[in-house]
Amino acid sequence: MTLQEVKGIAGKCVHYAMCRIDFLGTGVCASGTRSGYVSYYPQGRMEIAAALADEVIPVTEKLVDIVQSCTLCGKCDKQCYFVRELRPIKVMRALKDHIASHLEQGLAVVRPPTDDVLERLQAVTGAEWSSNDPAILVAYSVDRFPLTERRMPRYVTMPASTAEVQHIIKIARDADLPYTARGHGASSFAVALGDGIIIDLTRMKQLEVDPKTWTATIGPGVTAFDLQREANRHGMRAGVVEPAACVCANLISTNMHSLFSHAYGMGADHCSDAEFVDPEGELYTMNNPRQSNPFYFNKAGAGPNGICTQARIRLYPMTEDESAILVPFPTLQEAAAMAREVGHRRLGFAAGILGADYVSAFMAPTNETAEQLKQLFREKMGLEYSLLVLGDKYDLAAVKDLAEVTIDEKLIRTMMLSMPQLHGEAGLAMLSELPSDGTLYKTLFDEEMIPLIEAALSPSPDNIMPAVDEDMREFYRDLYQRPEMTNLVWLNMYRILSSRTGRGRPFFGMVMYMPFDEPEMIVELCEQLGAVADKHGLRNDFGYLIPIDFGKRAALEYDFYHDHTNPEEREHARAAADEAAETIDRYMKRMNGRSAAVVPFQGLCRKENLLYPEPAQ
Ligand SMILES: Cc1cc2nc3c(=O)[nH]c(=O)nc-3n(C[C@H](O)[C@H](O)[C@H](O)COP(=O)(O)OP(=O)(O)OC[C@H]3O[C@@H](n4cnc5c(N)ncnc54)[C@H](O)[C@@H]3O)c2cc1C
Ligand code: SF4
Question: What is the pTM of this model?
Answer without folding.
Answer: 0.95
